[in-house]
Design a protein that fits this description.
By secondary structure, the chain is an alpha+beta fold. The chain has two domains: about 100 residues, no CATH class; about 80 residues, no CATH class. Helix content is about 25%, strand content about 15%.
Length: about 180
């Protein structure tokens, strides 16, 4: 966690995840050079001629001024409208090969940890078990093939790792080029 940056409940370390980086660039919303700039997705029909600082994301001014969202609400089923609003309009999104989605656990949006490979996933067996179950549901019946795929995560296929904000369990989904 970087001291001095706004706190994001659902994306606690956007610098480590790569969604925010150090930069001298000015924010297109507040026009200040804060030393940090957002680098991931923003969905809007308006023309945006630059990037946002973390403070304009956190206070909602960037999403409001440019009528946009930092992530789609896909995956946020079963949570309150206030949570959907916080995740989509006041939380840094993240870059992914496929359309990013936000995971839910224990009735709340989970916190995005980052893009990981098998080595990082191995520390979270509950997330690996979830991915195994997801692959089975998608028709991957051969256990050897599933395991070979999972152990290869980290190249053209990775996992997006989340942590439940209620119980602390880790969960993930696969993203591939």
């Amino acid at each position: 966690m970087n001291v001095g940056l706004p706190s994001f409940r659902y994306h606690p370390d956007p610098v480590t995840s790569g969604s925010i980086r150090a930069s001298a660039q000015r924010c297109v919303c507040c026009e200040r050079a804060t030393g940090w700039i957002y680098t991931a997705t923003f969905y809007t029909a308006k023309e945006v001629g630059g990037r946002f600082c973390p403070w304009c994301i956190a206070d909602g001014s960037a999403a409001e001024r440019f009528a946009g969202e930092f992530t789609d609400s896909y995956g946020l089923d079963g949570v309150g409208e206030d949570v959907v609003h916080e995740v989509t309009r006041r939380t840094p999104g993240f870059s992914a090969w496929q359309d990013p989605r936000w995971l839910v656990h224990c009735g709340d949006a989970a916190a995005f940890v980052g893009e990981v490979g098998y080595t990082e996933l191995a520390a979270h067996p509950e997330a690996l078990d979830q991915l195994r179950a997801d692959l089975r549901m998608e028709g991957w019946r051969d256990e050897t093939r599933r395991e070979r795929f999972l152990t290869s995560l980290g190249g053209d296929a990775t996992a997006m790792l989340f942590r439940c904000t209620v119980c602390g369990a880790h969960l993930a989904y696969i993203d591939a080029s």
